[in-house]
Amino acid sequence: MIIEVLYPANANLYGELANIRYLAKCVKDLKIISTSLNDEPSFISEKVDLVYMGTMTESAQELIIEKLSHYKEAIKKAIANGQHFLITGNALEVFGKYIIDEDKKIEGLGIFAFHTQRAMMKRYNSLYLGNYEDIKIVGFKSQFTVSYYDDPSIQPLFNTLKGVGFNKEETKEGIKDHNFMATYVIGPLLILNPLFTQKLLDSLNVPYTLALKDDIMANYEERLKEYSDEATGFYY
User: Fold this and answer.
1) Is the pTM of the predicted complex or chain greater than 0.85?
2) Which domains does the chain have, with CATH numbers?
3) For the residues 203-228, what does the mean pLDDT come to?
């Protein structure tokens, strides 16, 4: 199995590379390609099983949009052809139409019809509980932005049970298109959600053993119980 991590030096704000280190424990002989800002992404011209990109600063976000803009059509084609992507945190905003920051408009790749509003004087924090197909998702959000679907036919990655979706009024969360998956949920998403990780690895059709299964399942069940408790403080 080959995983390409896009811009790990710039897109690891909340330690998202722990997700990749965990997959390396699950899949024998996993190969990781670390793509820097000056490299052409490997998935453009060769077989890669999973492309991953995590949370970044606002300045890095603009730089990454500029770098990926050269490959916009190739990215659209890769998504249509079933290339697996996992995009977390504000990295998902790179793929939208634009980001508004006060009187500044930052053009995105425009691959998906949504836009983002940034407010640097207000950080949004929340626990998150949602559904992915038939399983529950737990996690965290911490962001200066909210996004709005401009096309109601966009399919979400998760459906929100507690916490906030794409914005305060929206229960849909993230984007799912073919094998492209993007969510505002940050940090160790795959470690916190072993059932989701199993589904991801099953879809990649690779042999694997879920590492530390007993421990992470116990932690998942405990967190799920806590998040499902009506008394749990969700805030945003």
Assistant:
1) yes
2) 2-228 (3.40.50.880)
3) 96
